[in-house]
Amino acid sequence: MPKPLLATKQTQASNAMPSENAISKRQNTKGVVRAWLYDRILTGLTSGWYREVLTRLPAGASLLDVGIGTGSAIAHNARLIRAKNIHILGLDIDRDYLSRCEKVLSRNDLLNHVTPCLTSVYDHCGGPYDAVYFSASFMLLPDPVGAIKHVSSQLAPGGWIFFTQTFHHEKSLLIEKVKPMLHYFTTIHFGRVTYEDDFREILSESGLELLEFFTMASTRHTSYRLAVARPYTGAESKAMAAGA
Questions:
Q1: Number of helices and strands (H, E) in the chain?
Q2: What's the pTM?
Q3: Of 191, 194, 198, 138, nearest to 162 (Cα)?
Q4: Which of 31-37's residues contact partners 24+ apart within 8 Å by CB, and which partners?
Q5: For 65-105, how does the pLDDT look when each residue is reduced to its tens digit (9 = 90+)?
Protein backbone atom coordinates (compact mmCIF):
# COMPACT_ATOMS: atom_id res chain seq x y z
CA MET A 1 0.00 0.00 0.00
CA PRO A 2 1.55 3.36 -0.96
CA LYS A 3 2.43 5.81 1.82
CA PRO A 4 0.40 8.98 2.22
CA LEU A 5 1.84 11.92 0.31
CA LEU A 6 2.50 13.92 3.50
CA ALA A 7 4.52 11.13 5.06
CA THR A 8 6.60 10.79 1.90
CA LYS A 9 7.47 14.51 1.87
CA GLN A 10 8.44 14.40 5.55
CA THR A 11 10.70 11.43 4.94
CA GLN A 12 12.36 13.15 2.00
CA ALA A 13 12.86 16.31 4.05
CA SER A 14 14.33 14.27 6.91
CA ASN A 15 16.76 12.52 4.57
CA ALA A 16 17.79 15.85 3.08
CA MET A 17 18.66 17.36 6.48
CA PRO A 18 22.26 16.92 7.64
CA SER A 19 22.76 14.64 10.62
CA GLU A 20 23.86 15.92 14.02
CA ASN A 21 27.21 14.20 13.53
CA ALA A 22 27.70 15.97 10.20
CA ILE A 23 26.87 19.35 11.73
CA SER A 24 29.18 18.70 14.69
CA LYS A 25 32.01 17.65 12.39
CA ARG A 26 31.54 20.77 10.27
CA GLN A 27 31.61 22.99 13.37
CA ASN A 28 34.73 21.26 14.69
CA THR A 29 36.48 21.74 11.37
CA LYS A 30 35.54 25.42 11.35
CA GLY A 31 36.83 25.79 14.91
CA VAL A 32 40.16 24.17 14.03
CA VAL A 33 40.56 26.51 11.06
CA ARG A 34 39.74 29.57 13.19
CA ALA A 35 42.34 28.59 15.78
CA TRP A 36 44.92 27.89 13.08
CA LEU A 37 44.35 31.32 11.52
CA TYR A 38 44.69 32.96 14.92
CA ASP A 39 48.12 31.38 15.38
CA ARG A 40 49.28 32.16 11.86
CA ILE A 41 48.33 35.84 12.10
CA LEU A 42 49.09 36.75 15.71
CA THR A 43 51.52 34.38 17.43
CA GLY A 44 54.64 35.72 15.75
CA LEU A 45 53.88 39.12 17.25
CA THR A 46 52.31 38.28 20.61
CA SER A 47 54.95 35.74 21.68
CA GLY A 48 57.38 38.65 21.99
CA TRP A 49 54.81 40.61 23.95
CA TYR A 50 54.47 37.78 26.45
CA ARG A 51 58.24 37.58 26.80
CA GLU A 52 58.40 41.26 27.78
CA VAL A 53 55.84 40.64 30.53
CA LEU A 54 57.21 37.33 31.80
CA THR A 55 60.75 38.69 32.14
CA ARG A 56 59.42 41.40 34.46
CA LEU A 57 57.71 38.95 36.81
CA PRO A 58 59.52 37.60 39.88
CA ALA A 59 60.16 33.89 40.31
CA GLY A 60 57.13 31.99 41.55
CA ALA A 61 54.69 34.70 40.46
CA SER A 62 51.01 34.05 39.80
CA LEU A 63 49.56 35.71 36.67
CA LEU A 64 45.99 36.21 35.51
CA ASP A 65 46.07 36.25 31.71
CA VAL A 66 42.97 37.93 30.26
CA GLY A 67 42.58 36.59 26.72
CA ILE A 68 44.93 33.60 26.55
CA GLY A 69 43.68 32.62 23.08
CA THR A 70 45.25 29.44 21.70
CA GLY A 71 48.12 29.51 24.19
CA SER A 72 50.71 29.40 21.41
CA ALA A 73 52.32 32.70 22.45
CA ILE A 74 52.74 31.30 25.96
CA ALA A 75 54.16 28.06 24.57
CA HIS A 76 56.88 30.05 22.77
CA ASN A 77 58.00 31.14 26.24
CA ALA A 78 57.70 27.72 27.89
CA ARG A 79 61.34 27.57 28.94
CA LEU A 80 61.12 30.95 30.68
CA ILE A 81 57.88 30.00 32.46
CA ARG A 82 59.33 26.73 33.78
CA ALA A 83 62.65 28.34 34.77
CA LYS A 84 60.89 31.04 36.83
CA ASN A 85 58.16 28.67 38.06
CA ILE A 86 55.42 31.08 36.97
CA HIS A 87 51.81 29.96 37.31
CA ILE A 88 49.20 31.35 34.91
CA LEU A 89 45.42 31.23 34.89
CA GLY A 90 44.30 32.05 31.35
CA LEU A 91 40.80 33.34 30.64
CA ASP A 92 39.06 33.29 27.28
CA ILE A 93 35.48 33.21 26.00
CA ASP A 94 36.26 31.39 22.73
CA ARG A 95 35.81 27.60 22.91
CA ASP A 96 37.70 27.01 19.66
CA TYR A 97 40.77 28.84 20.90
CA LEU A 98 40.73 27.10 24.28
CA SER A 99 40.35 23.69 22.66
CA ARG A 100 43.59 24.30 20.76
CA CYS A 101 45.14 25.89 23.85
CA GLU A 102 44.84 22.71 25.91
CA LYS A 103 46.59 20.71 23.20
CA VAL A 104 49.34 23.31 22.82
CA LEU A 105 49.99 23.40 26.56
CA SER A 106 50.09 19.61 26.75
CA ARG A 107 52.62 19.36 23.88
CA ASN A 108 54.87 21.90 25.58
CA ASP A 109 54.65 20.36 29.07
CA LEU A 110 52.95 23.45 30.53
CA LEU A 111 49.81 21.97 32.09
CA ASN A 112 51.42 22.22 35.55
CA HIS A 113 52.05 25.92 35.00
CA VAL A 114 49.14 27.16 32.88
CA THR A 115 45.42 26.57 33.46
CA PRO A 116 43.01 27.67 30.69
CA CYS A 117 39.52 28.70 31.78
CA LEU A 118 36.40 29.33 29.68
CA THR A 119 34.95 32.44 31.29
CA SER A 120 34.70 36.21 30.98
CA VAL A 121 36.98 38.53 32.90
CA TYR A 122 33.87 40.13 34.39
CA ASP A 123 32.70 36.80 35.82
CA HIS A 124 36.03 35.54 37.11
CA CYS A 125 36.84 35.74 40.81
CA GLY A 126 40.13 34.40 42.12
CA GLY A 127 43.57 35.33 43.30
CA PRO A 128 45.27 37.04 44.88
CA TYR A 129 47.44 37.39 41.78
CA ASP A 130 50.85 39.00 41.62
CA ALA A 131 49.97 40.42 38.20
CA VAL A 132 47.21 40.67 35.60
CA TYR A 133 47.95 40.77 31.89
CA PHE A 134 45.79 42.07 29.04
CA SER A 135 47.46 40.86 25.84
CA ALA A 136 45.72 42.83 23.07
CA SER A 137 42.43 41.82 24.70
CA PHE A 138 41.94 45.20 26.34
CA MET A 139 40.70 46.87 23.13
CA LEU A 140 38.00 44.19 22.82
CA LEU A 141 36.34 44.77 26.19
CA PRO A 142 32.93 46.49 26.25
CA ASP A 143 33.69 48.09 29.63
CA PRO A 144 37.47 48.45 30.06
CA VAL A 145 37.19 50.55 33.22
CA GLY A 146 34.92 47.97 34.83
CA ALA A 147 37.33 45.17 33.87
CA ILE A 148 40.31 46.95 35.41
CA LYS A 149 38.48 47.67 38.65
CA HIS A 150 37.29 44.06 38.82
CA VAL A 151 40.76 42.52 38.40
CA SER A 152 42.39 45.16 40.62
CA SER A 153 40.36 43.80 43.54
CA GLN A 154 41.99 40.40 42.91
CA LEU A 155 45.58 41.67 42.96
CA ALA A 156 47.96 40.92 45.81
CA PRO A 157 49.35 44.01 47.58
CA GLY A 158 51.92 45.64 45.31
CA GLY A 159 50.67 43.75 42.25
CA TRP A 160 50.93 45.00 38.68
CA ILE A 161 48.66 45.17 35.66
CA PHE A 162 50.30 44.75 32.25
CA PHE A 163 48.93 45.80 28.86
CA THR A 164 50.37 45.09 25.41
CA GLN A 165 48.63 46.36 22.32
CA THR A 166 48.78 48.40 19.17
CA PHE A 167 48.52 52.20 19.40
CA HIS A 168 47.70 54.43 16.45
CA HIS A 169 49.57 57.73 16.32
CA GLU A 170 47.02 59.82 14.45
CA LYS A 171 43.25 59.77 14.53
CA SER A 172 41.72 58.07 11.49
CA LEU A 173 37.97 57.67 11.02
CA LEU A 174 38.61 55.21 8.17
CA ILE A 175 40.68 52.85 10.32
CA GLU A 176 38.18 53.18 13.17
CA LYS A 177 35.49 51.85 10.84
CA VAL A 178 37.57 49.23 9.04
CA LYS A 179 39.36 47.60 11.99
CA PRO A 180 36.24 46.09 13.66
CA MET A 181 35.18 44.74 10.25
CA LEU A 182 38.36 42.67 9.83
CA HIS A 183 36.62 39.96 11.84
CA TYR A 184 34.48 39.08 8.83
CA PHE A 185 37.56 38.35 6.72
CA THR A 186 39.91 36.79 9.28
CA THR A 187 37.51 35.42 11.98
CA ILE A 188 39.69 37.30 14.49
CA HIS A 189 38.35 40.18 16.55
CA PHE A 190 40.85 43.06 16.50
CA GLY A 191 38.73 45.42 18.58
CA ARG A 192 38.72 49.19 18.60
CA VAL A 193 41.43 51.56 17.44
CA THR A 194 43.44 52.71 20.47
CA TYR A 195 45.04 56.13 20.93
CA GLU A 196 47.47 57.00 23.70
CA ASP A 197 45.42 59.82 25.20
CA ASP A 198 42.31 57.65 25.42
CA PHE A 199 44.29 54.81 26.98
CA ARG A 200 45.83 57.06 29.63
CA GLU A 201 42.39 58.47 30.45
CA ILE A 202 41.00 54.96 30.98
CA LEU A 203 43.85 54.08 33.33
CA SER A 204 43.30 57.27 35.30
CA GLU A 205 39.56 56.68 35.54
CA SER A 206 40.26 53.11 36.71
CA GLY A 207 42.51 54.31 39.54
CA LEU A 208 45.78 53.10 38.03
CA GLU A 209 49.20 54.70 38.13
CA LEU A 210 51.22 54.23 34.94
CA LEU A 211 54.72 53.04 35.88
CA GLU A 212 56.17 52.18 32.49
CA PHE A 213 55.14 52.88 28.89
CA PHE A 214 57.59 51.05 26.66
CA THR A 215 57.62 50.96 22.85
CA MET A 216 58.53 47.45 21.68
CA ALA A 217 58.34 48.26 17.96
CA SER A 218 56.86 50.96 15.75
CA THR A 219 55.96 51.95 12.23
CA ARG A 220 55.11 55.33 10.76
CA HIS A 221 51.48 55.17 11.85
CA THR A 222 51.42 52.67 14.74
CA SER A 223 53.46 51.39 17.65
CA TYR A 224 53.35 48.22 19.74
CA ARG A 225 53.64 49.17 23.39
CA LEU A 226 53.89 47.64 26.82
CA ALA A 227 52.22 49.50 29.67
CA VAL A 228 52.86 48.59 33.30
CA ALA A 229 50.51 50.03 35.91
CA ARG A 230 49.40 49.50 39.49
CA PRO A 231 46.43 50.62 41.58
CA TYR A 232 46.96 53.77 43.58
CA THR A 233 47.30 53.11 47.29
CA GLY A 234 44.88 54.66 49.77
CA ALA A 235 47.36 57.41 50.69
CA GLU A 236 47.99 58.25 47.04
CA SER A 237 44.28 58.40 46.32
CA LYS A 238 43.72 60.82 49.19
CA ALA A 239 46.59 63.00 47.99
CA MET A 240 45.12 63.10 44.48
CA ALA A 241 41.70 64.01 45.83
CA ALA A 242 43.30 66.84 47.80
CA GLY A 243 44.97 68.16 44.67
CA ALA A 244 48.50 67.17 45.63
A1: 11, 7
A2: 0.76
A3: 138
A4: 31/95, 31/96, 31/99, 32/96, 32/100, 33/187, 34/96, 34/97, 34/187, 35/70, 35/96, 35/97, 35/99, 35/100, 36/100, 37/186, 37/187, 37/188
A5: 999 989 999 999 999 999 999 999 999 998 988 999 999 99
**Residue 58, C-beta contacts closer than 8 angstroms, at least 6 positions apart:** 84, 130
pLDDT at 184 over 90: no
pLDDT in tens, 104-145: 999 999 999 999 999 999 999 998 999 999 988 787 888 999
Report the distance separating Cα 42 and Cα 189, nearest Å: 11
Q: Are 46 and 135 in contact (CB under 8 A)?
A: yes
Identify the helix (H) or strand (E) that includes residue 108: none
